Amino acid sequence: MRRLLLILLIGLLMVGGLGWALTRPADLERDLAADHQPDPEAGALVFTAAGCASCHAAPKSEGEDRLVLTGGMGFASDFGTFHAPNISPHPEAGIGSWSFEDFARALTRGVSPEGEHYYPAFPYTAYQHMTAEDLRDLFAYMQSLPPDATPSRAHEVGFPFNIRRGLGLWKRLFMAQDHVVAASGNAQLVRGRYLVEALAHCGECHTPRNALGGLDRSRWLAGAPNLSGKGRIPNITPGELSWSEADLMGYFTTGFTPDYDTAGGEMAEVVDNLAQLPESDRAAIITYLKALPPIP
Question: Which residue from 29, 122, 197, 266 has the highest number of Cβ atoms inside 10 Å of its Cβ?
Fold first, then answer.
């Protein structure tokens, strides 16, 4: 009996140790372009392309108030409701005390400065593809924004999803490090892929998810249920989206569809962000969308 209990104890310790190792938050192991001189002006474009204010500005804020990143937007899901945190440069309520390495690890690994996993409502599965130069430029720009002392709201997540350590397994299953679309040799397509798959994180809304919340990459950008419960996010592959390049450029610039309807809901904010980017970036996104395999 003692031998059996010892074997069981050793087995439990081995399983526990393996689980602890598999769920360990990832370290920041990449070139951080330490010799790059951060450019806040370039960082402002990264900030816009990534839609940071769309989630982290106070709801219904307008104009310059959109740059006060108090947080507060809620994201309802089958796992609970997640709230965008304060990411202003306030030293206590925001990220003002973070180092650049803290910032880069959060965006590309989904890990907090304290070593905890972030929930993937924060789209680090997309931001992991950001270049080190863009990360440095973005950090420099965000440090220049107004600090705000508004406390971040706690997520409303019940057991077992409130055990953040388990997100380490989720990341191993669903945080794919490769790109969805091959784009070698075509500079415009490469740029479009970077904007769609990384900065603008379009897949987070336009791609369906499995039962564990991972993106179904086999139906990339083929439409998904709207988490708000109101309708569906549309299929934007050529299997459904038949707009011409001119139609898409007009929509990304003005918000008007070819039928003279207008972008609404969260997409209105996306269009507002895209309209602030160089026309060449909007053209690159269009090239990417036209290159997607058509999915019915």
Answer: 197
